[in-house]
Design brief:
The complex is a heterodimer. By secondary structure, chain A is mainly beta. In chain A, about 0% of the residues lie in helices and about 55% in strands. Chain A has no helices and twelve strands. In chain A, strand 10 and strand 11 form a beta hairpin. By secondary structure, chain B is mainly beta. Helices cover about 0% and strands about 55% of the residues of chain B. Chain B has no helices and eleven strands. In chain B, strands 2, 4, 5, 6, 9, 10 and 11 form a seven-stranded mixed β-sheet that branches. In chain B, strands 1-3-8-7 form a four-stranded antiparallel β-sheet, with no helix packed on it. In chain B, a hairpin with a 5-residue loop joins strand 4 and strand 5. The mean pLDDT of chain B is about 95. Classes of the chains: A mainly beta, B mainly beta. At the A-B interface, strand 6 and strand 11 of A face strand 4, strand 5 and strand 9 of B.
Amino acid sequence: AQSVTQLDSQVPVFEEAPVELRCNYSSSVSVYLFWYVQYPNQGLQLLLKYLSGSTLVKGINGFEAEFNKSQTSFHLRKPSVHISDTAEYFCAVSDTGGAQKLVFGQGTRLTINP
Amino acid sequence: GAVVSQHPSRVICKSGTSVKIECRSLDFQATTMFWYRQFPKQSLMLMATSNEGSKATYEQGVEKDKFLINHASLTLSTLTVTSAHPEDSSFYICSARFGAGGYTFGSGTRLTVV
């Protein structure tokens, strides 16, 4: 079964600074990878996903992530953050076959300070 | 496209009663749906995979007699929390898979058992 580890539970960053949220996954088969954002008391919004092809994936709101198969990582980055980026970020993985259950990491709380 | 509607958004029930949560795919046929549970400030925990016309597959540790899942049509899956107790209070989210690597989420149901 696949699993996801988000290495940082909280990441404080100053406004306009760059940020990287780390995600490592474990799976014995090929995977799809995702990053979601959740604002307080709201549902999930897809930031970006990797299905195949280019390992650098660009998403909404200026976020991007790079799939590194050898390091089994899918870290999320943004070159300059805004106060509005304060939210909970979840990395998720699914197998490419079978039921394709989507399994989430523990989440990273991104706090942007002025 | 690929919209999922989840109802109710909030429900308060008395201890010992049952509560039904509905998840409808509005513009596509959802062969597979997933149910998640999210505790405050925590990640989404996959509870079960719901397949149209067959029994749900529950994750380890999830009581299938307490959390009844029915997926009777290609557009509707329901989660019934039976004999609810305060420890069942949580945020429940449904998700439907469409195509390869496509997932859409309901807006969630906040269940409070008093």
